C-alpha cells in the first residue's frame, strides 16, 4: 500500500492525472482481503492533494477531493500560499468561509499575503469577502499583521478597504514595527483614532485574562521597553500617560530603567514631573 501512495505522489508531481487515478484505484478500490484495521485510507493521499494545489492543477484537486482525501477542512492555507486563484474559487463554491481563522489564536487567511506583501492576493481575498477586521481569539486581525510588517502602500490600501484602527491592537503593533518607518505608522494609526492610553486587551476581558502574565501595558510601556525614543516623544506629545500602570503595576519608566535605556528613562521621568505640575510636554 505504501507503494501506491508513493507512486500517486510521484504522478501528482508530474501532473499525471491518469497515473494518479491508477494508483488511487489500486489503493482504494481494488478488492483485497484486508482487515478493517489495515484498510487503506484515502487520507494517506493528502500529500498528493497538496502537490496538486501547489501546481494549480484544479482537475486533480477535484478528483482527489471526490476521493475524500480530506473530511471537512479544505487546505485553504496551502491554496493561498500557492496563489492558486482558480482552486480558491473552487473552494469558495464548496462553501469555504473565507474569514475562518487559521487557528484559534491566529488570524484568517488574508494575513498570509499581507505578511508576504502580496498585493494581488490581498486584493483578491478582499474582493471575495475577506474582512480586514476579522479577529482571532487574541484580537489579531489582518491589519494587525500589516501594521507590524507590511509596506506602507499595503497598509494604506487596507485602510481604504475598511480596516478599523480601533480593532486589532494596532498601536501596540505599530510600536513594535521593526522598520525605519515605524514612527510614521504610529502617527498614521494614532491619527486615525487608535487609543493611545489603552492597555493591551483592556476592553477584552478574555484576552486580558489569558495574556495578563506577559505584562500587558500601553503603547508607551512597549516603546519604553524596546527603546523607541522617537515614538516615546510622539506618544507623550499626543497625551500618553507616563504614570499609567501596566498589568504588573509598573510605569513605562520602570521598563526603560529595567532594560538600561537611560535616555528614555530620563524623558519619561521629566514627563511624569510635567504631568504632576500640569505643564505641557514639548519636544
From TrEMBL:
It comes from the Eukaryota. ANK repeats lie at residues 215-247. The keyword Plastid does not apply. The keyword Repeat applies. Signal peptide: none annotated. It holds the Pfam family Ank_2. Keywords: ANK repeat, Repeat. InterPro entries: Ankyrin_rpt, Ankyrin_rpt-contain_sf, Multifunctional_regulatory. This is Ankyrin. It comes from Lentithecium fluviatile CBS 122367.
